[in-house]
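Q: What structure does this chain adopt?
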Amino acid sequence: MKPSITPTTGNLDFAAVQRRTMAVLVIMQIVGTVGVGVAPSVGILLASEVTQNEAWAGLARTASTLGAALFGLPLGNLAAQFGRRFALSSGWWAAALGSALLVVAAQWSLVVPLFGGLLLIGAGSAVSLQARFAATDLAAPARKGRALALVVWVGMIGSVLGPNLGVPGAFIGERTGLTVYAGAFLIAAVCLVIAGIIVFALLRPDPLLTLQRASGLETQKPESMGTRIRKVLLELRNNRSARYAVIAIITAQIVMVAIMTMTPVHMSHLGDSITVIGFTISLHVAGMYALAPLVGYLNDKLGTRPTIGMGIIILIASLGIGATWPEATWGVIASLILLGVGWSFINVAGSALFSGVVSDDTRASSQGGVDALSNLFGATAAFVAGPLLMVSSFSILSLIAIVVLLPLAWLTVVRR
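A:
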């Protein structure tokens, strides 16, 4: 049984701490996601330019997603031992280092800094994901979905701006001699450093440490990575609701990443410019985040399964458009917008469910583990999607993604 938590501990007002936490997370998320948002468009195009090899470019395109997977569990363990403040700031600064390496890779067309930079910038994605869980640490049970959704929603601002950093990157390049890609990643590095400073300086008191103290967990001894992983696996084995939430989050990530990662390549083959490609990715990201507050409200009012069911229907509509009109730029754009909206419904609802049913003593580690699994499957999907697009078409890729959705649909509708 999870320990009950009172609204105050001593002179500490949980509601006041939650309000401060949300304010800091909102500011941090806006600034940090500008830096992270550059990877899905500029980073993918840079990978193709530097490697000049479709196989290597495909591997490079998955590197940032793989980086998010590799950092997910370690950041969760850092949060469990030292709090959200330490974990989130560390992740932003690791991503800033990655962005600095990408400046070098872009300026001199170097492969090793390219891969290293994309892996490290994935830490920013992991932090952005874990920020949504930080929003639920002290949220009232009836408002967890809305608290999580707000942090997801504000990430839209930075994530929409990030794919378009090529424009200010060109401006900087004209005055510094940097390439357009190097200029874009220089801006990203600055944003990521600032995001780390914001959370490190202002996230006090730490929401997770406050929750642990209120739950009587402050006397726990530090545990090894292996011990925490075993606890996470035990949690998933014994917790049916947690398993369903994880399946939902992973499925949505596989579908979204596979299609989104290949879209810049497909649009480039259609002859679309970097401006049109960046705009398309921005609209996709807007779809991922713009409706998050509404999704959180629906999840709190209607429940998880109806909300996830809506997301499945939206994703099928998206993939149907992509399969039917793959050669039309408007069709690709419409498909990408709906792809983001469908992902939002499933991710917000699944994440809120997971945060609500996981036990307090494995909370941070389990959340980090879910994000790690989600990004690992996403990276695999992105890597596989490249060869699939080469040997088939964007239509076939969209149809395969529909098939991937079927098990989640069955769990949602049939096996309640």
